[in-house]
Every structure is written in structure tokens, then in C-alpha cells.
Amino acid sequence: MDAEPRSNSVRARINTIIFHVSTPAGRAFDISLLVVILASLLVVMLDSIDTVHAAYGDWLAGLEWVFTTLFAIEYLLRVYSSERPKDYVFSFYGLIDVIAILPAFIALFYPDAQYLLIVRVIRMLRVFRVLKLVPYLSQANFLLVALRASRQKIVVFLLGITTLVTVYGTLMYVIEGPPNGFTSIPKSIYWAIVTLTTVGFGDMVPKTALGQTLASLVMITGYAIIAVPTGIFTAELANAMRPEALHRECPRCEKGQHEQNASYCNRCGAALFPAPDTGASKHSESR
Amino acid sequence: MDAEPRSNSVRARINTIIFHVSTPAGRAFDISLLVVILASLLVVMLDSIDTVHAAYGDWLAGLEWVFTTLFAIEYLLRVYSSERPKDYVFSFYGLIDVIAILPAFIALFYPDAQYLLIVRVIRMLRVFRVLKLVPYLSQANFLLVALRASRQKIVVFLLGITTLVTVYGTLMYVIEGPPNGFTSIPKSIYWAIVTLTTVGFGDMVPKTALGQTLASLVMITGYAIIAVPTGIFTAELANAMRPEALHRECPRCEKGQHEQNASYCNRCGAALFPAPDTGASKHSESR
Amino acid sequence: MDAEPRSNSVRARINTIIFHVSTPAGRAFDISLLVVILASLLVVMLDSIDTVHAAYGDWLAGLEWVFTTLFAIEYLLRVYSSERPKDYVFSFYGLIDVIAILPAFIALFYPDAQYLLIVRVIRMLRVFRVLKLVPYLSQANFLLVALRASRQKIVVFLLGITTLVTVYGTLMYVIEGPPNGFTSIPKSIYWAIVTLTTVGFGDMVPKTALGQTLASLVMITGYAIIAVPTGIFTAELANAMRPEALHRECPRCEKGQHEQNASYCNRCGAALFPAPDTGASKHSESR
Amino acid sequence: MDAEPRSNSVRARINTIIFHVSTPAGRAFDISLLVVILASLLVVMLDSIDTVHAAYGDWLAGLEWVFTTLFAIEYLLRVYSSERPKDYVFSFYGLIDVIAILPAFIALFYPDAQYLLIVRVIRMLRVFRVLKLVPYLSQANFLLVALRASRQKIVVFLLGITTLVTVYGTLMYVIEGPPNGFTSIPKSIYWAIVTLTTVGFGDMVPKTALGQTLASLVMITGYAIIAVPTGIFTAELANAMRPEALHRECPRCEKGQHEQNASYCNRCGAALFPAPDTGASKHSESR
């Protein structure tokens, strides 16, 4: 809307393409960006495979420069066309956009900083910006609402888990000890986490009868308390998905929601018409 | 019903046997087909065991030809008796029926294509056609409705998982690196999937303290977020299973919903007609 | 009650002690039986440990004979005091009682049948008979109702799992093949089950890139579809735990349960008094 | 309140600082205590790592004495300032406070009792006392209510699990036997627990076809019945989180429950008094 007055300028047009998904050009831009991001991630991954690096290392480095250049141009255009450049630069995505470009330039001057290139994987996060494209976002919203609502309970749960693995890990360190691979308390706690979460790598296993008995206890604990986060999230999600209310309008004040068996509007006291289809309202209420 | 006018012809009778399960002959046909499909699957599996192949390879090959012949005859009869042969041939099951037969014939002419025989396992899918026999299908329906309703949320969840394992995998590659078995980013992502899903093969395990700390984080993440698909599906299934509401209208006040065994309208007191099919409604309600 | 007329006879008294838990003597009998069963299980287990068998084998064998004798006496008393001995002998628990005794006697005459002694573990099941003692049974009932209600859906789910592991297993056999440990289709299906259920022993692991990609798919499938049985059971259990109905009695016919907002009894059509505490009933209904 | 009359004395001031979190000094004390507890846990853990112990063993021992002294002073102050010292000393936290100090002193006189130092990990539990600081406690309450409500069902479930692993373990012992690592029934039961809980270490794996078939059954059982504790806890948590129902009575018809923002009774149309504390009720309702 602010862009109206200068809607003919190049800058405004770039702004529309880059920041607004509703126009065909904006959509095309977002889709291209998604493709380039994913391609650049693929290049980073392929380059980490020894045989591929040996055979196509130079090609991949070349491609990487193409992507970096594209991202750099995109970044400059974003800064240029943004209505409040400073806000963009220091926003979450603004920072990620810089981090997606910088490593390549730094590695140019300090060849030893090759490892820095890994940071490019952070480009992955840019994918989420493009996601405004899809209708899935409203679904993600339900999940986020439920996650936010369960946050406190999840923290309490994680605190309980932390205590459990500390105590179990220390006990295993005492019982099994260094000869059986439980060389220190932190390592034994690591084992307790591996076991409680039912991952069970098998790189450390109890060998004494007492250790195996305690391990059984850890496993059954882990198996049973998975119910806790699941229960929390399920209950919260069911809440988030509950339809907001019943629709029966008051003839006088037009308040739209009333209890199923209400005979009078509870805002203005006017008589309500009988519920037309008690069954249906009951249906939606029982959610 | 369309088959009425030519109900005396052989073709119509075959059609009834093959396509309609309601007649005794149709039932018998479907059960025989189920047995043959399962037997042919068993033969394919047994033949893949070295010792069995060495001892009974010829027998199994013979049996396989018997099954292939039976399936070929069945296929021809289906095409012949179908009311719209073209529709059948290009339908999902029509194509699977061909794929169930072809490999054997191709392997006859190109002996090197032995491996193609594996495709026969696709016969497994044919079992599902025969399932129309059982009353379990209405139950599968509940599950499918719930799965379809949760599809979008599951996609969002899988996208989140993908991001998580990419980031975790790359971090592990940087932390542990090739000396500890994390030889490339894709392989490290594979490890992250193995760990996040709490499978934990143990073929790759972190050996540094920092790696084990990050691994602990991956495991606890995986352990906690299993709550997400479970919560989604549980909430949707609860929705899908809600009784649709019984429809029995009061002749005087037209209230549409009544308890199953109600004899009088509980709004105006008028007598209700008896419930038409109490058993069925009770059945569906108690689910 | 049938026992009234001969309530002074020894037989009736034994019957009361063995079959009725409500008397102090009956309780004492059941508790002793529980202790003896658990002790005999402990003996069987300890005897299977090599070092224990070497050191205390004779003692344990002696103890075993004490338990067997006790169980034999108990069995004879049950048959003697039972009101319908034949019914008892061929009942579920009657058969288990015999199986708990027989192996010892058979092993006496055929010393080679030592392995038969394992059957004694079936005594474990006898524990459940004694459980009538505890108030937990009504809770088990909720679980059983929910399990029974979800039976059909669970069968459909298991059928889907079976298809999945067959297809995944066969694909892994084709991709990885015997050199990497996937020596036959059944063994590959075993691997697929190990992986899909997120157990992940690690005795067979994919080594090719394609195999690891497919394995990732198997793991994520397994991780996501655990939601299905959980969702089914949770929904059914919530149903089973729902209070049967509201208590508002009809003044004429005394039918005790009515819809919350009912004004007339739906059995006899008499006018109902208004719900005394709509809030409370609503509360309990919405469970 | 009892402390009023002697509110100027040192003892009362210490009491306020130590036992009451509402004052700034009390908060500061609790936060410092939390930091010291966590630091002392860190020292215990670091000291268990061989390389760290070799390099900084003396420093850590020194730090440990500092912490022990602090805890000892704190304990004495607690006893001194407590209104009923005896009650405190024999309370749960009072005992833990002693156990957190004693080992160091005992190890001073009996140097062989080094291992006793492990008991210091029990200090971990002291963290929970400090948690009264945070608002998370009301959330933990929901979880505890749900856990308490599901206790009986969980016990029934664990009893079922115990029977399952005993029977499965014994069968595996018979099928696989000592040559394949299933050396005794208890060890085989341990394997059954590892497998049923989907941990799957892989230190013991079935090698015969029959053993792998039974193992598949164990795994699928474990995979499916995780639904049981999850279902139980989810259903109970949903119950615990249900808003208690708002109590606001209609002055004319005495209907006890109304919507939060209702101004008129929806049964008789009489005006209601305004809701006394809309904010709080809304808050608790939206949970």
C-alpha cells in the first residue's frame, strides 16, 4: 500500500517481485529461488563425498560460485528494493541471507577456512521463507499453537528426563564401571539417554546381571513415559483444532454463539428460537 | 444389474463369479485366488533362500509356472468377461494383474533378466482386491479418512524432520568427521535419520564428547517429537470415529435426533416410530 | 449359594477356601498360591543359569519337586471340591494347572525330555487367576474393552504393516543383496521389521547409498505410522472411559438416563423435572 | 505468620531468606543455591573422567570441599531457623540435605569409601526444591494428576508386559539356546525387554530362522502395544486439563453454570451479576 505512489519505478517493481507472492512474477521468483536453494544444498552435500569431490570438485566449486553470485545479487536487490532496508538487514531472514553468502568470500581470502563452507547448510532455513507459497502454512499453525501451549509441560517433562538419565547414568557407572565401557559419569549418562529414548546403538551395553536388570528398568521407563509428551501434545492439538463455538443467532442483539440448550440470549436476555438442529450442535460441541 | 438381459450367457456367469463377491461361487473364487496369491508369494520367497533354491529350485520353478499360468488364465477371463474391457485393462488393478504375469514370460526369453522376477512380489498388492470379502474394510475406511485429514499436517511435520536431520547431520559431519565414520554429509544425514527415528543401528556412533552431546540432543528431539504425528493422527481419528448422529424425526415437533432406544420425543412427548434398525445403529454407535 | 445345604462338609469348606476369595481363609490361600507360583518360576529361571545350575542344581531340583507336589495336591483338591469337576478339568485354567504339573512327571520317566521342563514357565499364567484379589481388575477391564473395540482396526493396520515390510524387504534384497548380508527375501523382511518397528539391532545394515536411502524411508515410515495404533487405541480408550450417561430419573417409569436437555421421558412420555444441575451433568457428559 | 512476633530477630530473617521465595533476598538465595548445586554436580561428573581427574583432580577435590562446606552451613542454618527443626530434619528434603553432605565427611575418615562419593549425585534432587521459583509447577501438577489417575491401568499394563517378556524370553531360550548367546532364561528375558521396548542394542540377536520369526513377533508386539500407555495417559491428561466448569448462579432460577461472558441467564432470562474474575477464568479455561 505504501508502495502505491511510486508503483511505476523499477524499485517498486522489484519489491513486488521479491516480497509479494500474489503476483505471477512473484510466484515465479519464489519458485526459482526454491530451486536454486535446493540445488546449492545438493552441491554442498555432493562435495562432501570424497569420490565425488575427487572427480567433480572443480565443477562443484564453479557451481557454488554461480549460486553464491545469484544469492549476492538477490541480497543486494532485497536491500535496494526494501521499504525499510535497515529493518530487513537486521531481521532474522536478513541475517540468514548474509550468512548464506559470506563463507564463500571469506574462504576466498583465507583458504584454510574451508570448513567454514559448512555454514552454507544454513541456507536450508531459507526454504521456509519460500513456504509462504503453499497452503500448508495454516496447518503448520495448528501444530505451532499446540506446541506453544504444551511448551511449559514439555519443559517440566524434559527436566524429569534429565534427572532420570543423570541418576540412571550414575548408577550404571557405579555398577558396570570402566571395565565394561562405562568409563565416566557423562559417558554413562550418554548411555542412559541412548537407552531411555529407545535408540539403543549397542556401542555400550551392560554386561553384569545387575547392570542388565537396571538397564531393563531404564528401557521400560523410556518405553512407558513416551506416553507423556505424546499425551501432552495430543491433548493440546485436540484443543487447538476445536471449532470455536456454536452458531445460533440472537434475534435482538445478534450475538452468534449460545449454549446448546439456551432459551434466552445470555447477552441481552431476548428469547431465542429453539435450536433448529440440536443434534448438529451437540455434535460440534462434543469435540 | 446391467448384466440382467444376458444373464444366461457364459460371459455373464464368469463376470458374476470374478467380479461379484456376493454369490457363493464368487466367494469361493475370491478365496481360491487369495490362497494362490499367497502360495505364489511363498514360492518367490523360498526360492530366494540359497539352500532351498539349491535343493528344490526346479520344483519351485515348476510351481511358479503353474501360478503364472493360473494368473494368465484369470487375466484373460477378466478381460473377456468385463463389461468395459478397456477400463479394466488400464485400471490400477488391471495393470498390477499384468505386472504379476509378465516377468515370467520376459525371463523366458531373456534368461539374464532373472532379477526381474522380483517384480512378482507386487502380487502382494493383489491381496487387497480380495479383501472386499471381509468386514474389515469399513474399519480401514476410518483409518483412511483420518490419514487423509492429517495429510497436510503430516507433510509439514516431514518437512520439519527433513530440515532437522539435514542440520543435525551436517553438524555431526563437522564434529565427528571421516575418521569416526561420518565420511560425508549424506551419510551423516543417514545417521541422523537412524538416530532421530530412535532406530539406532549402531553401525555409526559418535566417539567425541561433543558428538555424543549433540547425539543426545538428536535422540531427545526424536523421542519428544514422535508426539507430533501421534497427536495429529489421534485427533483426526477421534474426529472420523464420531457417530454421525442418529436420524429419527419426531412426527409432532420434528426434533431430529433421539436416543437410540427412545420411544417418545424428549422435547414434546409425542410417540416415536420404532427405530428401523436398532442393531445396526447400535453397532455403528458403539465404535 | 448352591453350597448352602452341605456347608458343613469338608468338601464345601475346601471349595470355599480354593474358589472364593471373599473369606479370610480364601484370601490367605490365594496369597500363598501366588508366592509359591512366583517362587517356582524363580527356581526354573535360576536353574537355567549355568553357574547356578552347577552349584545348586540338586537343591533347585529338590525345591522343584516340592512345588510340583504342592501343585499336584492343589489340583486334586480343586477337582475334588469343584461343584462340576468335569467343567473345571477342561476349563482354560484347569488345563494350565495340569500343564504346570505334568512335565516334572514326564521328565521323571524320560530323562531326555529335560527340555520339556521349560513348559513350567506356563505357570506364569496362573498368576492371573490369583489377580482376582486386587482391585486392578476393573482397570484391566477398560483396557480390554478398548482393545476389543480396536481389534478390527488393529488387524487392518497389521495387514498394512505386513505388506509394507514385504515390499521393503524385497526391495532391500534386490538393492543390497547377499554380499551385504541380505541373503534372502525372508531375511530381508526380517530386517525390514527390525527397522520399521524402530528396534534397529544393527546385525544387518545397508551399505550402499541406495540401500541407505531406502532404509531412511523405512525408518521414517515406521516412525510416522506408530501414530496409527496409538491413535486407534487412544480413541477407543477415551470411548470406553466415557461415563455411560446422565442420571435424571423419570417420575413415572423410573428410567434413569435422559438427554441433558430432555423435557419428557423418552420411554414413557411423562414430563421430566428440569435437570437439577445442568452444569454438573454437562461436565460429566463432555468427558 | 507465626514468625510475626519475632520478625526482628536474626533467626526470623534467616528463615524468611531460606524458606520464603517471595522476598528479593529469598529469590537471590534460591538462585544462588541452584547455581551451587549444579556446579557441585558438574564437579562430581568431571571428576569421574579419567583424564580430567588426572589433570585437575586436586582442584576438583578442593572445589568439592567448598561446596560441601556451603551445603553444611546451609543445613545448619536451616535447622537453626526452622520453626519446627525436628520436622525439617526428618522431612524428605531434610534427609536429602544430609545425604548431600555426609559422604564427603565419611570419605575423610575412611579413604577406601571413595565410591561413596557417588551418592552426591543425589544432590540433583535438591534442584526440585528450588523449582518452586518457577511458574512451571502448576503444569507439573497436571502431569502428576494424570499420572496418578492412570496409575492402576499402568500397573496392569506393566504386569502384562512382564508376562509377555517372560514367555517370549523363555521361548527364545528354548529356540536359540546358549550357542547363540541366549545363555539363560533371565538373559533371554533381558533380550526380550530390549526388543519389546524397541531399544534393540544388538548385543544379542537371534540367528535361526525360527528365532528371527519369533523376534519379529516380539518387535511387532512392542511396536503395537506402546499404544497402551500412551492411550491411557492421553485420556487421563485430557481429563485433568478439562476446565472445572465456571460457577456463577442465576439469582432467579438458580441455574449454576453460565458462559464466562454471559450477562443474562440463558434458562430464565434474568440478569446475572458480572463475572468476578474474568481474566483468571479465561486463563484457566484456555489451557
Describe the structure.
The structure is a homotetramer of 287-residue chains. With 287 residues, the first copy, chain A, is mainly α. Chain A has 3 domains: 8-132, Four Helix Bundle (Hemerythrin (Met), subunit A) (Up-down Bundle), CATH 1.20.120; 136-228, Helix Hairpins (Orthogonal Bundle); 247-275. Helix content of chain A is 63%, strand content 0%. The first copy, chain A, is built from 12 helices and no strands. The longest helix of chain A has 39 residues, at 137-175. The two termini of chain A are 41 Å apart. At the B-C interface, α2, α7, α8 and α10 of B face α8, α9, α10 and α11 of C.
Throw out a few tags for this protein.
287 residues; mainly alpha; Four Helix Bundle (Hemerythrin (Met), subunit A); Helix Hairpins; 3 domains; 0% strand; disordered C terminus; potassium transport (chains A, B, C, D); ion channel (chains A, B, C, D); voltage-gated channel (chains A, B, C, D)
Q: Which pair of protein chains has the largest interface, and what are the residue counts?
A: B-C, 66 and 59 residues
The total strand number of chain A stands at 0
Average of pLDDT of chain A: 78
SSE string of chain A, helices as H and strands as E: HHHHHHHHHHHH
Instruction: Please tell me what the overall shape of chain A is.
Output: flat
Distance between the termini of chain A: 41 Å
Work out the radius of gyration of chain A: 29 Å
CATH superfamily grouping of the largest domain in chain A? Voltage-gated potassium channels. Chain C
Question: How much helix is in the residues of chain A?
Answer: 55-70%
Can you tell me the number of structural domains of chain A? 3
Strand content of chain A: under 5%
Largest sheet of chain A: none
The CATH topology of the largest domain in chain A is Four Helix Bundle (Hemerythrin (Met), subunit A)
Figure out the total of helices of chain A.
Answer: 12
